[in-house]
Design a protein that fits this description.
By secondary structure, the protein is mainly β. It has no helices and six strands. It has a four-stranded antiparallel beta sheet with strand order 2-5-4-3, with no helix packed on it. A two-stranded antiparallel sheet has the order 1-6. The N and C termini lie close together (12 Å).
Length: 94
Amino acid sequence: MRSLALQNVFANLGWDEVRLPAPVFKGDTIYSRSEVLEKRESRSRPDVGIVTAESKGYNQDGKTVITFVRTVMVYKRDHAPKVRRATDTDGQGV
């Protein structure tokens, strides 16, 4: 079974301030959180905007293993192309 999903990122514009303060080992479980720092309209494309977010990755012990600031170009609401994606093994989607 396949599901219909929207893909919102149009382009990755760059990563800044990448830090790897702790190692990651085989078997670790990594969790992440992101906070939007800034958003603005694209000057050249009316159907997209520019978003800058700070992301942090944590291992299963809550220790920070990566931090970075990422800037992406994203489709505005109702402007993303519809893309088919495969579902995962339990049929609930990916």
